[in-house]
Design goal:
16 helices, 7-stranded antiparallel β-sheet, alpha+beta
Amino acid sequence: MSVSSASSFTGAVATPHALATDAATDAFRDGGSAVDAAIAAAAVLTVVYPHNVALGGDLIALVRSPAGTVTCVNASGWAGAAVDVGAMRANHGSELPARGADTVTVPGGVRGWESLHGMGGRLPWRRLLQPARRAADAGVPVAASLGAHLADPENVDLHGSEDFDRVFRPGGRLLQTGDDLRQPALAATFAALADGGPDVFYRGELAAGTVRYLRSRGSALDEADFADFRPEITAPSSVEFRGLVVSTSPPNTHGFIMLRALAAIDEFHTAAPLGDDLATLMRVFHHGNRLRSEYLADPRQAAVDTTALVHDDLRAATPVGDAVVARSVPRGDTVGVATADGDGWAVSLIQSVYHAFGSGLVDPDTGILFHDRGTSFSLDAGSQNVLAPRKRPLHTLMPVIVTEKGDLRHVLSTMGGQGQPQILTQVLLRMLDGQSAADAVAAPRAVVGQQALGCTDDSVVVEADADDAAQASLRASSFETVEVPGHSENLGQANVVRAGADGELTAAADPRADGSAVVVQYARHRRTS
């Protein structure tokens, strides 16, 4: 005699696009884990949010297992083995350009999905890519954020490029919000990935075609650069803060800036870091930004002392007043996905093309848009971050997971370029001060540094609805204050899942994006004999 029993399964997800959230909830419904949900959502985002993410971009994620272990998947790609920094200087002068083939490093994202799936995926690989393939094939309405970036004068340099126009100016007309975005070549690529597995992106016919395309545009990347690439699987970097363990990605990423800020708040006994003491917090971040510029690099090829970056000279301050105006700012740039489930899996996944639409290169045969992460390399021979063969650039992607005695408390993710540590710190502080996840994500923010075009390292970009105490603190400081409207995309798009002490999950998506957050419960049936 067989007996059927049912138990309740809970899953939570927050993403910057509602269709990605739908893909994640469907994965939960079909018996998938938080890992499956994160991959399904990320795949859809490469279709519906191409100004921020694409198959041709990088991924960095944190995964928490039911045993309580937090692991970092660093799938940031490397420069080609044949890259010649001298030739780059001859071609570009003192800095790499913001677009073009010389900014393309090996895209690590698909290998990142593969690593995540191997850690805690329950659904078949093919199933996870189905929603993305369908979206690319059938078409989706152009989201508000995508429409705004297509029309943005900062991206007008892409207009007229055959590869870009084929996708985003079909028939000679620039797509607008609400128009149908169809990508049949990308749909065929997703079908190939579904059939052949992630390896086909890096080996075989698809990879060979990708390399031919990139080399036809001047890239030094070759087939071996793709075939040899593997993500780095490491322990996270962490600090204790208010009885919690806050974990993020280690170098070559700038997660240390958030950890440094939390350590400084503790050391200073800062009472109101988002109010009366906001300028003090901005000074800590200002110094962290300088440390990033001077010391952050790929630790596989440069000496990077993460402990020193987090803990040394917390009271030090950098001078204000001599910074240059930003030549370009990676607006668009990134997506953040947060998932968790009742079995104990949780994922903070960050995936990116860096500047809006990345390098601007879109392979007509595969529909793959390529990132421009290589522009983060320095061409200064004395820099830790100088371009070199098989080296990864300084990276702004940084997932965050917060635990308490091993139990999950928060999953945080955001876009926001150089401001990601600052955005996530502010969201976390608000939740720790008692705000709901939704209120913390929607609350006004401030970010110091080159966060908007025309800003300098010494500028603080602040949303106009910031409270009076915060505004007064900034006015009394020596920072230049640049005010932007409330819920400005310049201040990032954060997504959060929160777990209460009783295990109850809540989720929040940033109103600055086109996303949604959902907590779902499904009955899970088991049959015993």
